[in-house]
Amino acid sequence: MKTRITDLLGIEYPVIQGGMAWVAEYHLAAAVSEAGGLGIIGAASAPAEVVREQVRRVKELTDKPFGVNVMLMNPNAPEVAQVVIEEKVPVVTTGAGNPGKFITQWKEAGVKVIPVVASVAMAKMMVRAGADAVVAEGTESGGHIGSATTMTLVPQVVDAVDVPVIAAGGIADGRGMAAAMMLGAEAVQMGTRFVVAKESIVHANYKERIIKAKDIDSEVTGRSTGHPIRVLRNQMAREYLEMEKNGASLEELEVLTLGSLRKAVMDGDVKNGSLMAGQIAGLIKEEASCKEIITEIVSQAEKLLKCE
Length: 308
Ligand code: TUI
Prior knowledge:
This protein has helices at about 5-10, 25-35, 50-60, 75-85, 100-110, 120-130, 150-160, 175-180, 190-195, 205-210, 235-245, 250-265, 290-305; strands spanning about 15, 40, 65-70, 90-95, 110-115, 135, 145, 165-170, 185-190, 220, 230. It has 13 helices and 11 strands. The chain is of the alpha/beta class. The model has no long low-confidence stretch (mean pLDDT about 95). The two termini are about 15 Å apart. Helix 3 (about 50-60) runs parallel beside helix 4 (about 75-85). The radius of gyration is 18 Å and the shape is globular. The strands form 2 sheets. An 8-stranded parallel beta sheet has the order 1-9-8-6-5-4-3-2. The longest helix is centred in the last third of the chain and has 18 residues, at about 250-265. Strand 5, helix 6 and strand 6 form a beta-alpha-beta unit. Ligand TUI binds next to strand 5, strand 7 and helix 12.
C-alpha cells in the first residue's frame, strides 16, 4: 500500500506509532520501524539528554526511518527540538501545542515535520508554517485529546490542506484503517494498539487492563482545566475527577497525571496509575508483535479497500 506518506517517509507501510509518554521508548520504536512502519520515541517530559540516548539506541537497533515526538507542554521542548537536529532524526511529530516556532529550524536541518492537530484551523496554520504532513487526531484517542471525532475531523482536514493527512484516534484494525483511507487519509497512527505490542515495555498489568477493557471503559479527566486526558476508569481517574470538581489547580492536577502515568507503565499500578488509552481499547484482545500488528492491519485494509 503506497501513499504520499510512504514516499515522504521512506517506509514500507503507511502505519505510524503514536509518540506515547513513557510507552514509546526505543524498543517499541525500533520494532515498529523494523516491521516497516514508522516507530516514534515519545520525548514527553524527559530531559533532552535522555531523548538523545533513546535516539542513539534506536539507531543501534534499526537502519530504517524513525521519529521523535516532541510534547510541547514540556518546558524542555526547545532543548529536545535541538537534539532532534543534532542527532539527525529523520522525522518529528509534535503534540499538545503549537510547534510553529520550531518548524523553520527543523526544515532547514532536513527533518520531516508532522504536527498532530485536533482541528482544521490548527492543520491550516501548520501547513502555512511548513509542515510536510499532519496527523489529524480524533477525540477517541488516549491521552491528551481535542473534541472532534476522527470520522468528522479527518475528511475536513483532508479538504482543507494539500499535504498528506494521517488519521489517528479509534483505529486498531484493518477495518479502521480502511475507513480512515476512505476518508482521505494516507496513513494511520495507532497508539493503544502498540501499548499491547510484545515489544512494548509497558507493565503486564496495564496491558491486561487494555485487553480486558470494554467499549465504554474510558473517561476524560481535565475537561474543566482545558487539558482533557482520556484514561481507563480506575481509582486514580475517580480521584482526579473529584479533585477537579473541588477546584484543584491545573499544576496540582498535571503533576498527578504525569507522575501517575509512570506508575502505571513502569510499576503496573493500575489502581493509582494513569491508564491512558483510547476508546478502541475494547477491540484489542491480545498481545501481538509489531510485525504481526502491522502486517495484519495492512492486509485486512487492502482486502477491504479493493472491494472485490
Ligand atoms: O499530545 C497528544 N497526546 C498526549 S500528550 C500526553 S503527555 C501529557 N500528560 C499530561 C498532561 C499533558 C500532556 C499524553 N497524551 N496528542 C496530540 C494532540 N495534540 N492532541 C491534541 C493536540 C493539540 C491540542 C492543542 C494540538 C495543538 C493544540 O493547539 C493548542 C494551541 O497551542 O493553540
